[in-house]
Amino acid sequence: MSTSTPAKTAVSDHFSRAARSYDEHAILQLAVGRSLVQRLPVALPVAAALDLGCATAPFARAQQLVLPEVQWQAVDLSSAMLAEASERGRLNEHYQPLCADAEQLPLAEASQGLVFSCFALQWCDPQAVLQEIARVLVPGGRLLLAVPLRGSLQELQQSWQVVNQRPHVNALPDFSDWQNAALQAGFIDAELQQQVMVEYYDSVKSIARRLKATGADHVSGASGLTGKHAWQAMVAEYETKRTEQGLPLTWNVLFLEAEKTQ
Asked: 13-69, pLDDT tens digit by residue?
């Protein structure tokens, strides 16, 4: 595995702790991933592909059904996630694990026909990670990416801002950050689509439990514990957003499809 920064190590630690609970709670992530699987090409310029930030590799079976002749690598920063993928029987001779940083892949240039990534690269710098993806793709290679954008978890962020100014939600890249990064990486004809998805919960505690169980509770720059009174004040503010369906939690999702042209 590539040498990681303290920030990347913190991300890896959070996701490692969530490895056993990820599949049960990553409902929206899995729904987005199934949509991404439907966009898979039926043929690749070379028979090699990456599931980048694969977590427990929940799409392994579906990916191999679409592209049965392809040699896949399940890439994740968390070795615990890859171990969970193995325990769940998702790894095999055509779907091998690789513990690595998406921004520093230990792979040869122009070696991959496809990079697939679902809800994993929000922890990365868009320009750095798309440059790295472009490096490992062959000309004609495809990128299929889904990632949450700025504006995700906005209800949680707004509710905390009423209480204090500490970071409680990550500052995610926005649409233009990914669009500009795709252009700079050489994905000239990249197709980007933005979709707003809203989940509903019965309580703020359920939201916090879901985020923790999927590893998405890591917040860069956060420090110290949240006091009881601050938590109660945030919950009271969040409750003002309740609808007939429950407490909303918004995800602003980018779908990016691109081909490496040179």
From this structure: 555 555 666 566 678 889 999 999 999 999 999 999 999 999 999 999 999 999 999
In sequence order, what E strands does 100-233 have? Answer: 112-118, 137-148, 191-201
Contact status, residue 108 vs residue 217, Cβ threshold 8 Å = no
Calculated CA dihedral for residues 186, 187, 188, 190, nearest 10 degrees: -160
Report pLDDT for 222: 47
Tell me if the pTM is above 0.70: yes
Q: What are phi and psi of 128, to 5 degrees?
A: -65, -45
Element (H, E) at 52: strand 48-52
Q: Which DSSP string corresponds to 119-155?
A: S-GGGS-HHHHHHHHHHHEEEEEEEEEEEE-TTTTHH
- Rounded to whole angstroms, the Cα distance separating 213 from 220 reads 18
Instruction: Report the candidate in 73, 85, 62 with the shortest Cα–Cα distance to residue 16.
Output: 85
Judged by phi (left if over 0) then psi (alpha if -120 to 50, else beta), residue 162 lies in: alpha
Confidence of residue 218 (pLDDT cuts 50, 70, 90): very low
Instruction: Say whether 177 sits in a helix, a strand or coil.
Output: helix
| pLDDT 10s digits, 203-217 | 999 998 888 876 665
Do the Cβ atoms of 83 and 19 come closer than 8 Å?
A: yes
